[in-house]
Amino acid sequence: MATLRARDEGQKLARKHTLMDAGWSLFLESDGNLPSVAQVVKKAGLAKGTFYLYFKTKEELFLALLSDAVERFFDKIKDELSTPSINVDSLIDTFVKQISEDQALTRLGCIMSGVIEQNTEENVLLHFKLKMVQMLFDVGEMISVAVENAIKEGKPYNHIDKGTAARLVLRSYAAFVGVAQMAPAPNNIGYDAPEFSPVKLDIQADTKAIMRALWQEAILACDSKPQF
Q1: What is the pLDDT of residue 191?
Q2: What is the CATH class of 1-55?
Q3: In degrees rounded to 5, what are phi and psi of residue 7?
């Protein structure tokens, strides 16, 4: 298949996103396996050689998809933290809502270490991880400042530094991914059986419960346990 080379940055970016959209669409249609490069370019209507102008492997394409999803997530969290004082319930709701609505955060997060990392160049992987760490610390700094403002308002919170806050956000994400992996899908055997109802995980409700426990432990003063 002959494909005209993209001549400007706008065309290059559009072509890159065409490949990413095709890859994501195929991934959603599959049983969780990454599509091949041949499948991606066929779906995108581009030549196979075009793929390698933007990505060295199919795993690198999916790392780019995860990177975009992580940026969208942190933008939403920063918006929530733009008010002077922290509202933990609202922050948790935004956290869970954003991850629930952006499947890349869970479905690709689940296979990051076991699949995506295994065939991605070290420098590309390191760039992604350093960017993620920086975003975690940026949000951690905002949480630390918001908690300090809440303390000044008389709320019974503990001081929290940006590193601890960043780790709290990462733990919360890990909790969501873990619950998502264990929660039964509608096509699972026994999904509707009443015997399993008491132990059937609800992704949003159970993640919020875990997050509230994590955030209470980190922020609330030991001698005060009011509800957020």
Answers
A1: 63
A2: mainly alpha
A3: -100, -25
Half-sphere exposure for 64 (CA within 13 Å, toward CB): 19
Distance CA 60, CA 209 (A): 34
Q: In angstroms, rounded to a whole number, what is the distance separating the alpha carbons of residues 181 and 186? A: 13
- Report pLDDT digits (tens) over 131-168: 999 999 999 999 999 999 999 999 889 999 999 999 99
How high is the mean pLDDT of the chain? 89
Nearest CA among 183, 155, 182, 171 for reference residue 210: 171
- Name all contacts of 155-159 with Cβ < 8 Å and 24+ positions apart: 155/85, 156/220, 156/221, 156/223, 156/224, 156/226, 157/219, 157/220, 157/221, 158/218, 158/219, 158/220, 158/221
Structural domain 59-219, CATH architecture: Orthogonal Bundle (1.10)
Residues near 199 by beta carbon (within 8 Å), at least 6 away in sequence = none
DSSP 86-141: --HHHHHHHHHHHHHH-HIIIIIGGGTTTTGGGGS-HHHHHHHHHHHHHHHHHHHH
Domain borders along the chain are: 1-55, 59-219
3-state secondary structure of 157: strand
Angle at 61 between CA 102 and CA 25, to 5 degrees: 50
Residue 51 contacts residue 19 (beta carbons within 8 Å): yes
| 80 Cβ contact list (under 8 Å, min separation 6) | 90, 91, 94
